Amino acid sequence: MSQTKQDSQDTADGILAASGPISLDVLASVQIEAELRRVLYALATPEYMEAWLQLPEADRVECHSERRSFDRFRIDLFSCGKRQQSIYASCLLSKPNRVTYLWERTGAGNRVRSVVEIHLLGGPARCNLKLKHSGLFSRDEREWHSKMWNRSLDKLSRLIEGIGIAPLNRDTVAVS
Length: 176
Prior knowledge:
This protein is an alpha+beta fold. The chain has four helices and seven strands. The protein has one domain (22-163): Alpha-D-Glucose-1,6-Bisphosphate, Chain A, domain 4 (2-Layer Sandwich). α2 packs across α3.
């Protein structure tokens, strides 16, 4: 949907749903010239996420998985050497070729909880990735996340196509 159409829809939704918050989704997609399972590993592994996540206003990004649970992690955003905010996420691999993040962004005294659904379609040499981030409740949040996902998916594509990310075994990090 074009930005103009989305803004018109937001206005119409705001009039119709004046009593409750408005959900503003982010949609993004990218085609990656790589094996689907390589993309899946890059999406589901915090160490890889640190390489491709591009967060607005962040000089540096660090991803930390929880010691007790491989699927839970924290993404710290640093600017001018100081941690500015954190994103807490759980990664669920469901159905073949689907990744879901339960996403919680913190900063400036507020928390925004949302859901990121990623569907992968493809074969041995090409993958189509479709992302939907839902549950955002302000234009600023939507704009921030839209910028982040578009930049991040572009970098993910460039990294995987450029160097190739090999599948992981749980004990090692491998880049081929």
